[in-house]
Amino acid sequence: MSRERCHYGLRVVAIKLYSTTYCPYAWRSRIVLHEKGVEFETFEVDLRDKQEDFLEVSPRGLVPVMVHDDTTIAESMTINEYLEEFYPEPPLMGDGPIERAAVRSAIVDLNFNRSRPLARLASMLFYGREKRDESVIEQQSARWNRYLDDLEQHFSDNEWLATDKFSMADLSLYPTELVTRIGFQLGGDRERPALDSWRERVQARESVQATAPEGFGTAA
Questions:
Q1: Range of 121's domain?
Q2: Does 65 share its domain with 143?
Q3: Distance separating alpha carbons of residues 19 and 11, to the nearest angstrom
Q4: Which of 68, 74, 93, 207 is 20 to 30 A from 172, comparing alpha carbons?
Q5: Could you confirm whether 23 is annotated as catalytic?
Q6: Of the listed 23, 79, 162, 173, which one is catalytic?
Q7: Residues near 52 by beta carbon (within 8 Å), at least 6 away in sequence
Q8: CATH number where 204 lies
Q9: Which of 61, 86, 111 is the last residue of a domain?
Q10: CA-to-CA distance for 138 and 160, rounded, in angstroms?
Q11: Which pLDDT belongs to residue 166?
């Protein structure tokens, strides 16, 4: 159940998520909120022309940011673990310390190791912070494809990324992989049937369908 407060007899949603539709990190938090069945309000941020209301809660200008009553939390990993503690059902970090460690390790590996090529590509192809360099694009694309090959091998023997059921690790990987596949057109040029099957399992979840950007919920 969502936590709400009343103001002069009107119901006010206690959670406000500052999000950008196509940002994979913000998408993760939207999925978590839907998985938990938590009511929330979304503030759509224009990353090219950031609104004053957004910058007041996020001086660094990064999404997602969540305001829960009087508490402001930044960074998707922190937001999602906060939601896991505040709304423990259904559990998304796994059962017990071993599973939680496995889920957290998979997310850290994705965020700080595997997705580094994507940050470089985004800087060059989307934000224009770096001059376009075809050799760098090729190198970073190859690094990401090697990770997809590792995932293909993993999902050949496992249904989910970190445990034997859907977890925070899967909902963290899915938006990143799909936005990269569609936005950067990376990963779709070779067959990876096990990875495709995993993606279909994630896409079947109501939380993913409810939060997917237009055209992203049924991507092959």
A1: 96-209
A2: no
A3: 22
A4: 68
A5: yes
A6: 23
A7: none
A8: 1.20.1050.10
A9: 86
A10: 29
A11: 98
